């Protein structure tokens, strides 16, 4: 799929606006500490989710991955599994800065090393967990079709959390010309 320059420009502008709000809101979340304002955390979560969703649509893998890891932390704060202390907020702010850098060089963003930020965010999500679950948090698994064609690589921890929330992963492979057109033809006859 080809994304036109105007669509990409709008995505970057919107994402930068989200980041400006995220940074201010993260500081307010830190100030509240254990007295978590769920509405504010949800606002930041939705902003990160929006950045992630657009990045996935645009094929911006690093932006998608980094915003997804931020989303995981925000989800844990929202569920009161984590208290937003200065260390946690600092890591989220550093990740926000990295997102801004990626968005400033969106065309080369997939080639920029973000491993330091990803590892810091994963460490936050796994630090309160037993050693076995920590291993799952840093272990990446391929989601693939039965014939072995890998489509996604995801942290095992993310899969485990999704399952706890009753979510499933579905891979669908279809050919628009053969599968959909033939099905439509069969339905009309």
Summarize the structure.
With 189 residues, the protein is mainly alpha-helical. Helix content is 68%, strand content 6%.
Give a verbal description of the structure.
With about 190 residues, the protein is mostly helical. It has two domains: about 5-130, HPT domain (Four Helix Bundle (Hemerythrin (Met), subunit A)), CATH 1.20.120.160; about 140-189, no CATH class. About 70% of the residues lie in helices and about 5% in strands. The chain has eight helices and two strands, in the order H-H-H-H-H-H-E-E-H-H. It has helices spanning about 5-30, 40-60, 60-80, 85-105, 115-125, 130-140, 155-165, 175-189, and strands at about 140-145, 150-155. It has a two-stranded antiparallel ribbon with strand order 1-2. Helix 1 packs antiparallel against helix 2 (about 40-60) and helix 2 packs antiparallel against helix 3 (about 60-80). The protein is globular. It starts with a helix and ends with a helix.
Gyration radius, in Å: 19 Å
The major β-sheet equals: 2 strands, antiparallel
**CATH A-level architecture of the largest domain:** Up-down Bundle
User: Low-confidence runs (pLDDT<50, min 5 residues)?
Assistant: 129-136
Strand content: 5-15%
**Largest sheet strand order:** 1-2
SSE series: HHHHHHEEHH
Spatial gap, N to C terminus: 32 Å
Number of strands: 2
Which percent bin holds the helix content?
A: 55-70%
- Named CATH topology of the largest domain: Four Helix Bundle (Hemerythrin (Met), subunit A)
Structural class: mainly alpha
């Amino acid at each position: 799929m080809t994304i036109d320059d105007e669509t990409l420009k709008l995505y970057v502008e919107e994402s930068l606006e989200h980041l400006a709000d995220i940074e201010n809101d993260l500081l307010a979340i830190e100030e509240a500490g254990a007295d978590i304002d769920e509405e504010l955390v949800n606002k930041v979560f939705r902003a990160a989710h929006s950045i992630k969703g657009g990045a996935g649509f645009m094929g911006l893998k690093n932006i998608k991955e980094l915003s997804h890891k931020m989303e995981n932390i925000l989800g844990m704060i929202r569920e009161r599994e984590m208290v937003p202390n200065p260390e946690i907020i600092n890591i989220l702010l550093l990740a926000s800065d990295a997102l801004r850098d990626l968005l400033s060089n969106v065309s080369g963003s997939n080639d920029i090393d973000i491993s330091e930020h990803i590892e810091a965010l994963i460490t936050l999500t796994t630090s309160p967990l037993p050693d076995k679950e920590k291993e799952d948090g840093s272990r990446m698994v391929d989601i693939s079709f039965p014939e072995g064609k890998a489509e996604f690589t995801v942290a095992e921890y993310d899969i485990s959390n999704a399952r706890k929330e009753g979510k499933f992963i579905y891979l669908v492979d279809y050919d628009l010309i053969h599968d959909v057109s033939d099905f439509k033809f069969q339905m009309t006859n």
